[in-house]
Specification:
This is Esterase, PHB depolymerase family. 25% of the residues lie in helices and 27% in strands. The protein is of the alpha/beta class and 410 residues long. The chain has two domains: 299 residues, Rossmann fold, CATH 3.40.50; 102 residues, Immunoglobulin-like (Sandwich). The strands form four sheets. The protein has a ten-stranded mixed β-sheet, sandwiched between helices. A five-stranded mixed β-sheet has the order 15-19-12-11-22, with no helix packed on it. Helix 7 crosses helix 8. The longest helix is centred in the N-terminal third of the chain and has 19 residues. The chain is elongated and about 80 Å long. The N terminus is likely disordered.
């Protein structure tokens, strides 16, 4: 029975692999790189890492976890995370399970406790390697997973809440639901394990007893027609993580980002909700579809929506520029660095409202103490005086903390 169920799941995820495939733009030179010596790795996982050509300063690290029968390189090739890393400058770590079936271990006693061994320990080593190698931001480490990878996302957030700031689980199950000596739990997969919110929450709390620090936020996705991991598991995950965060079971807000999506948010209504669930009507075990990964990185706070207005007043040999940086997102920008490239022949002689690095070519302007925070809908104002040798034109692109900003038309 267990073997037949496993083979049925493998067939489903092979269809999933086909449904994930679409064309995504890639960086000109960046490529997926295998790392073989990254630290403790008790279950012999493989590691691949993708660093885009334009890596943000102190970049975020996103761990992307594949489905059963999959691998890190296949997930890299067939999903949007590569293109999103190119756009937003974060690092992507792709673990690969090497055991039979290529499923991650979300069931053994070793996996279900902090530092217990198995896959979570190896993945934690991969994160530490990426942080050392790329000067990754320790406050911006995230996990995203598909099916078996979604189960591991729940496990990582429970075992290492001090490491992961948030996670996104596509078609997963609650932490501890899959516990089984055989590695496959038919009752959990079928959605027949039902617990109270407190019972689910206690399982998470037992993973790292005594922990009182920051709790990771989580985004949960599930198709209503999922035949491999029943849709009921979405509701059980919501019960678990709302209890962990100590927030109510009733959503603070409900909306429809797309016609077939129903999004509920718990704890607070904005993009920084502690728990967010997205129910996708009429879809089976085939997530994410194009566009969903973008919503995941937005939930992580990696998109930092921004708008820049750049207005000049020029004369025959120089100009002044007034710059307004507006936070168009839902959460505050805590510390900012505006980067742009001046046209040839221009050179900054003085500036205000920011600490400037560079006088010509590539320029960065970092916040001062008084304007370090830009609240949603608010702006920071800065400016510069520069000379030119005939071209007083404007930069054609701006980034804030490595993220491309919209340029406000004049």
């Amino acid at each position: 029975m267990l073997r037949s169920v496993f083979h049925a799941l493998c067939g489903t995820v092979l269809l999933l692999a086909a449904s994930l495939t679409f064309t995504a733009p890639s960086a000109a030179a960046a490529s997926l790189v295998e790392v073989t010596d990254f630290g403790p790795n008790p279950s012999n996982l493989q590691m691949h890492v993708y660093a885009p050509d334009s890596v943000a300063d102190s970049p975020a690290v996103v761990v992307a976890l594949h489905y059963c029968t999959g691998s890190g390189p296949v997930l890299h090739q067939d999903t949007e995370f590569r293109a999103l890393a190119d756009r937003y400058g974060f690092i992507v770590v792709y673990p690969s399970a090497t055991r039979a079936g290529h499923c991650f271990d979300a069931s053994s006693p070793e996996a279900l406790r902090r530092g217990g061994g198995s896959d979570p320990v190896g993945i934690r080593s991969m994160v530490a390697f990426a942080q050392r190698e790329y000067d990754g931001d320790p406050k911006r480490v995230f996990a995203v997973g598909v099916s078996s990878g979604a189960m591991m996302t729940n496990v990582l957030l429970a075992n290492y809440p001090d490491v992961f700031a948030a996670g996104a689980a596509f078609m997963g199950v609650p932490y501890g639901c899959f516990a089984s000596p055989w590695g496959w739990n038919v009752e959990c997969a079928g959605g027949r394990i039902v617990k109270t919110p407190e019972q689910w929450g206690d399982l998470v709390r037992a993973s790292y007893p005594g922990y009182r620090g920051r709790l990771p936020r989580i985004q949960l996705w599930h198709g209503t027609e999922d035949g491999a991991l029943a849709y009921a598991n979405l509701g059980e995950q919501v019960k678990q993580w709302t209890n962990v965060h100590g927030v109510g079971q009733n959503p603070v807000s409900t909306d429809n980002p797309q016609p077939t999506w129903t999004r509920t948010r718990y704890g607070n209504a904005g993009a920084r909700a502690k728990v967010e669930a997205v129910s996708v009507a009429g879809v089976g075990h085939g997530l994410p579809t194009p566009g969903m990964a973008q919503h995941a990185v937005e939930f992580f706070g990696l998109t930092t929506p921004c708008q820049v207005a750049y207005q000049t007043n020029s004369w025959n040999s120089g100009f002044t520029a007034r710059i307004r940086v507006t936070n168009t997102g839902d959460s505050p920008v805590e510390g900012w660095r505006l980067a742009f490239t001046l046209p040839p022949g221009q050179s900054i002689t003085s500036g205000w409202g920011a600490a400037y690095n560079g006088a010509s070519g590539q320029i960065s302007a970092e916040n001062l103490r008084y304007n370090a925070t830009i609240a949603p809908g608010h702006s920071a104002y800065l400016g510069l005086v520069a000379t030119h040798t005939g071209d007083s034109g404007e930069p054609n692109a701006f980034t804030v903390n490595g993220t491309a900003c919209e340029i406000q038309p004049r």
